[in-house]
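Continuing the batch. This is chain 6 of the set; chains 1 through 5 are on the previous pages. Same settings as before, nothing changed between runs. Recording input and output for traceability.
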Amino acid sequence: MSEALEKLAGLVLARCGDGLERVASRCGELTFEVPAGQLVSVCRCLRDDPELKFEQLVDLTGVDYLQYGRVEWATESASNMGFSRGRDLAGPAGEGSGRRFAVVYHLLSVAHNRRIRLRAWCEPGEPPMLDSVVDIWSSANWNEREAFDLFGILFRGHPDLRRILTDYGFVGHPFRKDFPLIGNVEVRYAEARGRVVYEPVAIEPRTLVPRVIREDNRYEAALKDAPRKDVGHG
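Output for chain 6:
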């Protein structure tokens, strides 16, 4: 990591560092983990301190770590079994830790041309919950509504926490990793009733793991019983 980022990291820890924990990053960006109870105070410090001045919230999004490190991800080193290049990693949530949902904040200081990322774990339990930062950055209004709609994360103190992408009668939260791919209900217009109705989804589940086809003696019918031709070396 560059000297400038190391200097910024020290400054952040000195000014707002009560409870902050630095997180390793492979993309050359500065990331800190902040406890849920100190999220608002840390964010206010990052915005108001004249040497920091992170006056803009660029993005806010939820993250579901339910299957972190257990599913099929593209990785730097391939496994020697199965269809994927997945690895069984010790994820940040940890099985049995009660930590599943987190919210990530991307901040920009226009005055100092600096960027920083925060991650806050939601309070355990259902529904997951965090304090709203709308009073600090007004742009969080729509982003927090999106995280609520898609992940089911509640933001305490949000002025108008309603769904923003799915329909008002939608059941569930589509970006949760335990949400069924076919959904819970389907919508249609009923002529007899003269209105839209919601009914249990009628789509049959389907297998999404691709079938691997190889052109060798195991799969090609014309080659199945053909004798193997050894290749000579010249």
